[in-house]
Amino acid sequence: MKTVIKVKNVQKTYDKRVILKQVDLEIKKGEIVALLGRNGAGKSTLLNVLLQLVSKDQGEIEILGEKRLKTEAIGVMLQNELTLERTTVKEILELWRSYYPKSKSYAELLTIADLEEKQETFIAKLSGGQRRSLQFALCLAGDPEVIFLDEPTVGMDLKHRQKFWEQIKKLQTAGKTFLITSHYLEELQNVVQRFLILKDGSIAFAGTLQELQQNGQKVTFRFTSVLDKRLFTELPGVLTVKNYAMNYIIQTTEPDELIQELVPYLPAIKNLSIEHDSLNELFLEVTGGTYNVVSK
């Protein structure tokens, strides 16, 4: 698969503070990749450097095989607000279309924004979620090959978030490539192919959700049993054992081994469930810190 974003040994310093250090990454055509990190990890700086909004101190960046940014082939949706508040939905969509020699049709952009009934409405009168949907449509106006999305679903209600991710999947089937930052981690795990996790300005993890789960993941076993707690504490691979009125919670990093060890005791075990860490928990394990996670 063709590489469309290539970053090698990129560094950036502000006021003698290193924000990005030796960042290397590659993103293939048609991938949906999430860029995660705690506040201050360097996510926004990396996006700004990729988009040439901020200069890098050193390193190499190629997007679509070129060091010069091909703006006509790039779609960008940042967190900044639309400021043309006395402009209607129709006017701004037509304005954005005029910037590109090969733009998407007005009707298609209106459908993407889900604002068919708001064509003559001023932007100032739109809700926060509607504005974000409109911004998404604007970033697609030129039918870009590579799309950068920074917290795209902030302000959207559940219905519009679901429609947004459906649009992302549809665009991926057409060969579009995405780099996305978001605090809605539960949404990302159903859409994203790979995760890049920034920690202290460096890539601490790069891989699939499955690979992230295998990266020292804790698995939780829950069941009820009259068996003594000490029996489970002594099993290999067990990290913690909690027992509340015969309700057991056991954590392990070796779930397959623990299942085999539990087989002889299954007649005395009821309501057994096995839970893998959520993406939120996996993220915290990699970064070793807190994250302003938003649940659906």
From TrEMBL:
Keywords: ATP-binding, Nucleotide-binding, Transport. InterPro entries: AAA+_ATPase (IPR003593), ABC_transporter-like_ATP-bd (IPR003439), ABC_transporter_ATP-binding (IPR050763), P-loop_NTPase (IPR027417). Residues 5-225 form the ABC transporter domain. SUPFAM superfamilies: P-loop containing nucleoside triphosphate hydrolases. Coiled coil: none annotated. GO terms for molecular function: ATP binding; ATP hydrolysis activity. Pfam families: ABC_tran. It comes from the Bacteria. Signal peptide: none annotated. CDD domains: ABC_DR_subfamily_A (cd03230). PROSITE patterns: ABC_TRANSPORTER_2. PANTHER family: ABC TRANSPORTER ATP-BINDING PROTEIN (PTHR42711:SF17). This is ABC transporter ATP-binding protein.
